[in-house]
Amino acid sequence: MQKFWLASYPAGVPHDIDPGVYGSLVDLIDEAFRVHASRTAYVGFGVSMSFAELDARSLAFAAWLQSTGLRRGDRVALMMPNVLQYPVALAGVLRAGMVIVNVNPLYTARELEHQLKDSGARAIVILENFAHVLQQVVANTSVEKVVVTGMGDLLGGIKGMLVNAVVKHVKKMVPAWDLPEALSFREVVRHGQSLALAPVQLGHDDLAVLQYTGGTTGVSKGAALSHRNLIANLLQSEAWIQPAVNNPKRPLPAGEPITVVCALPLYHIFAFTICALLGMRIGAKNLLIPNPRDLDALVKEIRPHRVNIFPAVNTLYNALVNHEGFRQLDFSGLVVSNGGGMAVQAATAEKWLALTGCPICEGYGLSETSPSATCNPTDTDAYSGTIGLPLPSTEVVMLDDDGQPVAIGERGEIAIRGPQVMTGYWQRPDETARVFTSDGFFRTGDIGVTDERGFVRIVDRKKDMILVSGFNVYPNEVEQVAAMHPGVLEVAAVGVPDEKTGETVKLFVVRKDPALTEQALMEFCAEQLTGYKRPRQVEFRNELPKTNVGKILRRALREAA
Questions:
Q1: CA 555 – CA 558 distance, rounded (Å)
Q2: Rounded CA gap, 235 and 282, in Å?
Q3: Which of 60, 218, 295, 412 is the most exposed place for a label (fewest CB within 10 A)?
Q4: Which of 253 and 84 is assigned the larger pLDDT?
């Protein structure tokens, strides 16, 4: 196909990348640890871990895994928030020749049991705060080895003991649990230091990660991401940020490592790739934020550092621009604000740019694409309202219901082909066949349009579309308008049944101005939306339901309505 969007690429960004420069993701990691050994890799609770320390600890953990009888290709579940143990376990599992299964630590017992059984995980590393959930289901799974860790386990000395003591003192944070065969993370790393790691020959087609889809509809499925998939997305992402990292308008001090705010959870594919793996690749310092909803703690953690890259979702950006402590920080070093996971609203983007001087560079991807597929140029100086251009070596087309490409400017289902696209859904050939076209394009289920320059604008998920008297209403459009009202803090639009029109638009709103009324907001929207798109109902709430990544759950709101 004609890649007409390449004409819109920033200067210096290659049209293609070559995943073949590394035999496996482990080769890339080994090189990164060697090259960046003296640099700080991660900071958690104010304690730094260098790449050399990450190298040694992950080698020890890998050697221990091999000593347990687990074999090449076995799945190891990681169920932790953003703590120093996560990157150690991440690198260790891969270096042992095994497969990472990322698990949301806030899963219920039912959700956890499904993921462990579906993946066939034989081991799990879990934060003690969630061990009681594992206790309820572990006997029903194939898990043989349980490694439990505390928040402060790798902080060292008095600091580590203090953090663990404080966490345990707050009983709700660590409910009682009983897993008699469990080992401590510190013990297994210590034991692994006396063992030798047996090198494992891995190739591009070997499985590296099972990244489970959110499961907000239907059964959660594991996107099978190969070593090639992840190498490709790292090299694509590295190439794409170069214009910002080398932007003469906002120069970074020569030789100073890039500092990344890792406020998104590492078990989510966005942070897993863009923070953890890309951070290893470029020798960046990741500031680990275990709970991004605690904005005071987030501000305290990042205040001592000169931040350069800040990946986030719209809800976090929005919360931060309205947080007085965050507004007092120094943003002179910020060169990339990478928005993803959900649509970035224009009102939020405008406030972020005014505060930081760094525009939100919105991108798009899914668990199935490792995740990045498109992104706006990182040397932009404004919010575009699009999800940008296809990344190097990536093709994006819009397909109609018959699977045929639509004309430029027409709406269609976004379909993606590239080296970062998953090999398929784990042990679900029927589901895999359903989402791939005969020529290898992954059908995302999202509706978008492409302009003449190649920039893609996402309209909405098919399932979220509202049908009013036969007309399609896209919630993103309604939300973008409502969010521009100065009295609105957060907003979500859903379709609700209506006797006359089939469905009508309802807004769920968290107010910034307590005086905002339903009538005032509907009148505001009426000024900018045609009749069938206008909300007919408004419900004010103290908060909106969200995933742990901060994405608003429209499904839950539809059910409530």
A1: 5
A2: 10
A3: 218
A4: 84
